[in-house]
């Protein structure tokens, strides 16, 4: 559990895209962000108040979150200087970088000396159980994709936001580093030991109120040869009552696999439902979330209408149109 | 890679079942076994020559393999005495125990002082790649089960043996600790980090001669809520040309999951083939391996005949009947 609120560290981001983790936190949990910290030459700007470490501390910030990708897989000396000062000012530091904070001897030493915590959210800190498959109370919705990186996290976050705006009970359940930094907790599923994957998802989505929904962040794809085992653990550990199919219609091949075509939405529906029924006989597909960022408005509308007609399910782009119709379909499950 | 041949350590096994790992090595790789080492009170006997450490060393043994389960999850002082002497005599030690040899400070110190190797085969020693899904040369057969522990390893080993007896090219590819101890190498798949599971299976079953078959040891089941992600990685990393369906017909529920019934062989066939076709469009189910240990001869024969008729595929118990008909079906694929 990462202490909030955050000061978002944008470092020397060469462009806005490099700071997309920080952007995600600001977009989805604005109340968790007291300000941004930018170094000389930073080209990203979230529109938050620029603060020094001391100013952020005075404003109540508890954790400095590294919201920017680093260059060349190194934590630079320029970054280090800020991170050391932050620890000395009393901040914890949270990071989803591949190279771990804890593997930097100077940061580790200062954190120990100051009693602060280094959160490397890519690494599990919990000894997860083996999954037991037992029926849990409460309800769960899982986003599954025709491919990796088609909008599963965005879809789950948008549905969670809509649920909360309607006064309904909902929790976004993070399974990747960006999601964990956004919510301050979760399971870094791709780094869990094989035998404990499904158990970690059960741990993440425990018994809850009968009318509470977990919106589980998906990972990978059942059709992605590299990561399908991770997705399988989400389906069987997550015990979903509802699935949302996620798709990006302009993708020419599976991400990172040039010789693999994407499956059809029908193929995804059939495989995902068959597998979900192993753990939850009542699971249904409630809608389709399409990432239309590479389509014009007209193209997007035409594509969504065609999919909706063909699949007999609400088809929306939650970024353009909001997640209202997906939440309507969840609520209609009762 | 564990150096062969082995001296099989049976310790103070309370019964034959406690030494089943040693029994497996002796059954499947008798040429790797120069003898057995039994302590006072040992109730297991593989029928190998009892040897002292010095006798085994003189007979050429390179590695002492712990072929017996330990009691209470502890490596006892009585065992330790033998293990330390073995290191001092020049043996490596290999173990599939949950508690690791390397976590015993005295064993670790002696191994370092003598330059010997402690092989804890439950723990990966390789940094496996992310799977790339690219088509590999050679052929692969994967055993998939309706449940865990239904005879997948036995089936793959029996088919490998039959292939070799016919002078055909075959390798048993171990994915669990017993299999790794039997062959001296493999991937401890259940201990691999999630993102690298499928890649570890690709690593295990690399390019090979066009007429060479890998017989891949299965793990878990696509229908087992706790471990299905591991099985999925085998299907997508293994890129199988052939599947063998494995089943135990008297099982009343999924192993460890009292509220889960086993799937039908038809359900397993359909799901496993659909998933295998993602990575290998030509994959087919070539036969069914039934563990009939809890059936009489008459019951077994009747059951196998019924399954063979119903599924339209050879159905055998390789323990009772050998794997000849399964290998016939493989060979018939050309």
Structural description of this entry:
Two copies of one chain form a homodimer. The first copy, chain A, has helices at residues 20-28, 53-58, 77-89, 105-114, 152-165, 177-183, 197-204, 228-238, 265-279, 297-311, 318-321, 324-332; strands at 6-11, 33-38, 63-66, 92-95, 118-120, 139-145, 170-173, 213-216, 242-247, 284-290, 315-316. In chain A, the strands form two sheets. Chain A has a six-stranded parallel beta sheet with strand order 7-8-6-9-10-11, sandwiched between helices. In chain A, strands 2-1-3-4-5 form a five-stranded parallel beta sheet, sandwiched between helices. In chain A, strand 10, helix 10 (297-311) and strand 11 (315-316) form a beta-alpha-beta unit. Chain A has twelve helices and eleven strands. In chain A, helix 1 crosses helix 6 (177-183). Chain A folds into two domains: 6-120, Rossmann fold (3-Layer(aba) Sandwich), CATH 3.40.50.720; 139-333, Rossmann fold. With 334 residues, chain A is of the alpha/beta class. Chain A is globular. Helix content of chain A is 36%, strand content 16%. The two termini of chain A are 32 Å apart. The interface between A and B is large, with 40 and 41 residues. Chains A, B: This is DUF1611 domain-containing protein.
């Amino acid at each position: 559990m990462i202490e909030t609120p955050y000061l978002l560290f944008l470092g020397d981001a060469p462009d806005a895209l490099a700071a997309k983790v920080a952007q995600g936190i600001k977009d989805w949990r604005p109340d968790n962000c007291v300000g941004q910290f930018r170094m000389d030459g930073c080209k990203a700007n979230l529109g938050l108040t620029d603060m020094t470490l001391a100013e952020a501390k005075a404003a109540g910030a508890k954790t400095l979150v590294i919201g920017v990708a680093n260059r060349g897989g190194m934590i630079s000396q320029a970054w280090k200087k800020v991170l050391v000062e932050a620890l000395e000012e009393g901040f914890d530091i949270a990071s989803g970088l591949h190279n771990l904070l804890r593997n930097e001897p100077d940061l580790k030493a200062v954190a120990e000396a100051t009693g602060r915590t280094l959160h490397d959210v890519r690494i599990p800190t919990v000894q997860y159980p083996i999954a037991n498959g037992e029926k849990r109370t409460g309800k769960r919705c899982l986003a599954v994709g025709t491919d990796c990186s088609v909008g599963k996290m965005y879809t789950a976050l948008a549905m969670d936001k809509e649920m909360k705006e309607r006064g309904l009970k909902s929790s976004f359940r993070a399974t990747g580093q960006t999601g964990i930094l956004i919510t301050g907790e979760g399971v870094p599923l791709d780094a869990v030991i094989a035998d404990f994957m499904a158990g970690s998802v059960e741990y993440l989505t425990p018994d809850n109120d009968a009318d509470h929904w977990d919106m589980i962040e998906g990972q990978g794809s059942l059709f992605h040869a590299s990561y399908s085992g991770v997705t399988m653990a989400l389906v069987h550990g997550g015990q979903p009552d509802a699935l949302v199919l996620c798709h990006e219609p302009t993708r020419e091949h599976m991400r990172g696999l040039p010789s693999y075509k994407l499956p059809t939405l029908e193929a995804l529906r059939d495989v995902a439902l068959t597998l979900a029924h192993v753990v939850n006989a009542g699971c249904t597909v409630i809608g389709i979330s399409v990432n239309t960022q590479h389509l014009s408005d007209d193209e997007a509308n035409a594509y969504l209408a065609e999919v909706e007609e063909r699949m007999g399910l609400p088809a929306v782009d939650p970024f353009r149109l909001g997640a209202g119709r997906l939440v309507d379909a969840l609520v209609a499950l009762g």
